[in-house]
Amino acid sequence: MNQASHKDSILVDVRNLTVKNQSNTLVDNVSLSVSRGEIVTIVGPNGSGKSTTLKAILGILNPHSGNIHVPAKTRIGYVPQKLEINWAMPLSVRRFMRLTQRHSDSEIDNALKLTNVQHLLQREMTALSGGEFQRVLIARAMASRPDLLVLDEPVQGVDFNAEVDIYRLIAELRDNHHCGVLLVSHDLHIVMAQTDTVVCLNGHVCCSGTPHAVTSSAEFQNLFGVRGAQALAIYRHHHDHSHGPDGQIIPEDHHHHA
Fold it and tell me: Which CATH class is domain 3-202?
């Protein structure tokens, strides 16, 4: 791809993003971009700034400094980590799909077909399994035919087999609809197979690049106690370091054994 066409394919470009609240810096100097057809996965421990970064990109949080460029033509579909919904009220899948956007019956049907849950149209949301629930959330995000699909921990509450299927589905949506994907994950070992670029956060970007480059790097192996990319199938995502007062990484002395 030449430089001009690559620039035209960029769906979001984040440069030196810093987000603060009244007392803390939530993320500091984070840069990343997502192009059409690319899957970018953000990994990191709880409190590392993963969701903060997504919310800044979506315009939910205001940056303290830095620049977020989303071309005007970029349509974004968002799968949030938590939904502010009163689940005591009856809510069918059909009604849920219309909560915030007025999709037509055909748009709803097509979106549910994309995620293989069209048979759940009349089902109550509270009766769905974890995997079915996440597929409906993804269908809702896809109903607007987004250029960029943004997912905040889309496999939470999902068993292992359904987790593998959800990641496979996300890759199929990327392949078939040529959208970009920005994904926050609490896990590393499954995501890596389908991800083009990994961004490891711990308040700042610890390391980033292709999965092979990141897992082969000394920085990654120091951070995660992983002895090589081969171990990813059995290791959960970990940060085996702390930060000194000046922000420098302080490795811990132990490794995780299979």
Answer: alpha beta
CA distance 133 to 234: 27
| In the chain, domain spans | 3-202, 212-258
Which amino acid makes up residue 140?
A: R
**Cα separation, 57 vs 68, whole angstroms:** 7
Instruction: Render pLDDT for 131-188 as a digit per residue (tens, 0 to 9).
Output: 999 999 999 999 999 999 999 999 888 888 888 899 999 999 999 999 999 999 877 6
Return the residue matching tokens 């171990």.
231
Distance CA 22, CA 126 (A): 37
CB of 219 closer than 8 Å to CB of 198: no
The pair of structure tokens assigned to 29 is: 């100097």
Residue 96, phi-psi category: left (phi > 0), alpha (psi -120 to 50), beta (remainder): alpha
